[in-house]
C-alpha cells in the first residue's frame, strides 16, 4: 500500500513537472517588459492617417535573409522603407510596418505564406513613416512594443498609429517559438526612443535611420542627438553581426557603419573648429570639406549642405565659450 502510494506520488510529480515545462515552453517570455495602461489613452486624439488606404500599385516585398529571418520593403513614400520580420512556429515578429498600405499587405502576406499570426510589432522609434500601420497589426491581435520615451511623442503629436501595448527602459528580450530577439536602447541618437533590435542566432541587427550603407544621413539630422548617435554606432561596431538593416535603401555592413561614424565625427569636428574660429554660417558652410568617398555616397548632392546645417545647429546649441 505504502509502495503504491509512493509510486503514485512520483507519477503525479513527474506529470506536474512535464506539464509545467510544456506550458513554459509554449508561453512567450518577455524579459524587461512594462505593460501600458491603455485605458488611460483610449479617447486620445489622432491626426488623419494620410496614407490610410490600401494601395494596389504599391511596390513591396518580403524576402528571406537567412533561416526564419525575412526583410520587408515598400515604397509608400518615394524613399524605400524596410524592416526585419522573424517567423516562428508560435507567431511572427514584425519590425516597423512603414505605413498603412504596407501593413495591410504584410499582415495578409504573413498569414497566407506562413500560416501564423503576427504576435509582436516592434517600433524602432516614434516617427510616423516607420511606425504608421502598426494599428493594422494591433487590430488583428498583435502587441505593439516601443521604448518608453516613444509614448510622449505618439500622444503629444497625435500620431495616427497604434497606442503601444508594451514599453521597456534599457533592454527587452522576447523569446517566442524557440527564437530570441533583443531590443536595446543604447542612447538617444535619431530620436530619444530608438531601439536597436538584435537577432543573435542570425548575426543580424535592425538599425533604422541611424545606420547608413554608403548613403548620407537624412537632411539636417531631424530629431538628432550627436553624442548618443556616436555611442550607438560604437556599440554596433562591437557586435558580432554581418547583416544590418537600416530601415531604408540596402542593408549596411560593419564597414559602412565604420565609414559613417568617421564621417559624422569629422563633420562635427570641422563645424566645431569653424564655429570656434568665429565663422558665420555663410562662411562656414562653404568651408566644410568632404572626402571623395563621402562625395560618392547616395544623396550627397541633396543632403550634404543640410547635414552641415544640422551639425551646425547641434554644435551651436552645445557650446558656450566666454561671454
Ligand atoms: Zn526616423
Which features would summarize this protein structure in a list?
single chain, 323 residues, alpha/beta, Metallo-beta-lactamase, Chain A, 10 helices, hydrolase, signal, NDM-1-like
Can you describe this structure?
This protein is of the alpha/beta class and 323 residues long. It has a single domain (23-252), classed as Ribonuclease Z/Hydroxyacylglutathione hydrolase-like (Metallo-beta-lactamase, Chain A), CATH 3.60.15. Helix content is 37%, strand content 20%. A hairpin with a 2-residue loop joins strand 3 and strand 4. Helix 6 runs antiparallel to helix 7 and helix 7 crosses helix 10. Bound molecules: zinc ion (ZN). Residues 125, 127, 130, 190, 209 line the site of zinc ion. The site of zinc ion (ZN) has 5 residues, from loops.
State the assembly state of the protein chains: single chain
* Name of the CATH first level: Alpha Beta
Q: Specify the number of helices.
A: 10
Q: Roughly how many Å apart are the termini?
A: 94 Å
Radius of gyration: 23 Å
- How many individual β-strands? 14
CATH homology superfamily: Ribonuclease Z/Hydroxyacylglutathione hydrolase-like
Number of domains: 1
Low-confidence stretches: 18-26
Largest beta sheet, briefly? 8 strands, mixed
Strand content: 15-25%
CATH architecture: 4-Layer Sandwich
What is the CATH fold-level name?
A: Metallo-beta-lactamase, Chain A
Can you list the strand order of the major beta sheet?
A: 2-9-8-7-6-5-4-3
Alpha-beta classification: alpha/beta
Protein name: MBL fold metallo-hydrolase
Pfam family, one: Lactamase_B
Keywords: Hydrolase, Signal
Domain Metallo-beta-lactamase: 80-248
